[in-house]
Amino acid sequence: MATANNKTQCFVCNTEKNTYNCKGCSNEFCFPHLTEHRQIVDKQLDEIINNHGQFQQTILQQKQNSHNSSLIEQINEWEIDSTHQIQKTAEECRKTLIKLTQTLIDDVEKKFIKLSQKLKEIREEDEFNEIDLNNFQLKLTQITEEFLQSSNISIKDDSQEFIKKISIISSFDSYQSNHPTTSTATVSKNSITTSYKNYFPISIPAIPWNPITPLYKMLNQYQPPIKQKEIQIKENQFQQFGITVAGGNGQGNELNQLYWPQEIFIDNDKSIYVADYENHRIVKWKLNSSTGQIIAGGNQNNPLNYPRDIIFDSEINSFIISDKGNKRVIRYSDQNQTDQQILVSNIDCFGITIDQNGFIYVSDFENHEVRRWKQGDVVGELVAGGNGKGDHLNQLNGPSFIFINKDYSLYISDRENHRVIKWEKDAKEGIIVAGGNGYGNSLKQLSHPRGVIVDHLGQIYVADQGNHRVMRWCEGNDEGEIVVGGNGNGNQSDQLNGPAGLSFDNEENLYVVDQGNHRIQKYEKTLN
């Protein structure tokens, strides 16, 4: 490092001494200060090595958690929002198509009735000849062809973008030159067009045209282009064909309709209370009823704003509602719906549950935590998460619906981590009891789980929203089993479309909030 020179001035002490030249910095040092200088250089090397090690650890963590980045979350949100928009537009087109078809049928029927009257008249008058018969035959043929061909209604392809596209763009030009990283996601649209001037074309997602298939059937059978692996369904204890017990009449705000329902509560009379999200109301559907009754929200005098969840406090006969849009949890009296009490405010509330002591638990989606409120609490006690967004066992990432058992163990649908995590009383971290193997559709995986409930045997039921199925897990098992659904995204009685909330009635029948189909499905328990 250094070579000895004759007496010169030391760079540090400015004293004439025998000095040594440092080839690195080209300065002269006396022996004591040369040693000190060497120690400084050694320390700088140690810092570089330490920074190198820290950066190596950062690279390793990024490789292991690349699927949990904030950009992935944005893509997931885009996917959900786009699917919602497609379903909403398809429903509007179904309604338009039904109106158009009915108009066509009515028009043909009027012509047919008019022709029938003329046939009856000439038969009664007994005055007709071959010319009359030819005219009647020609008109009948024209009416028949008009009815069968439906030539004035068609699906027209439109090249315009239906869904706003997203792109992945890298700013590293040198890397891009050899590894192109820009990709886009778009959805094109088709439209139904008609020669009737009273109707306007509405856009729907592209559907392969088959002249043999009726238009309405094509609309109902449309599936988003998402491929899923075939999964063997294990034997279970519920009927596989659901019974629609609320909604099921398309999205809307009529009393026989729901619009993007979220969660439910079922009382001992099997009445169903639905958090009707997009209609900003809570609706009660009595057993075997074809319409619901608004018990909260739905008007300016009784405002709710995107209610997410509803539970019942049997001790004081009141409903507790997660009023997400208003960032609050409120209590409604069962006897007087105008009697409201704000229990929790300024919170991004999602799921709520109540324990046997009457303590209320609320999942905070934005802050990635669950808190418990006792009567009179202002802040609430942290019981799960609260360590920032992440996938460690002491963290949550977008907690949604929750469930608590008699042992005060809390089950949390950890939505963006694609898992259900169990947080025992006073625990500092949770235990993964379902999923936790990344986003996917194998029996070991979940995709954006929502509703979670636990039966008397300790079996965990999960609404696997992205896979359109309900899964059941036994704690400690590596994989779950499909209970209902799992037959692709659809509206048939053995299919689900983005299931959300779950509940049992007092006979252990399973109820599923079939969110995308705007209905509540009941799956009856079978005898073992």
From TrEMBL:
It comes from the Eukaryota. GO terms for cellular component: extracellular region. The keyword rRNA-binding does not apply. Pfam families: NHL. Keywords: Glycoprotein, Repeat, Signal. InterPro entries: 6-blade_b-propeller_TolB-like (IPR011042), NHL_repeat (IPR001258). CDD domains: NHL. NHL repeats lie at residues 439-470, 495-526. SUPFAM superfamilies: YWTD domain. PANTHER family: PEPTIDYL-GLYCINE ALPHA-AMIDATING MONOOXYGENASE (PTHR10680), SMP-30_GLUCONOLACTONASE_LRE-LIKE REGION DOMAIN-CONTAINING PROTEIN (PTHR10680:SF28). This is Uncharacterized protein. It comes from Adineta steineri.
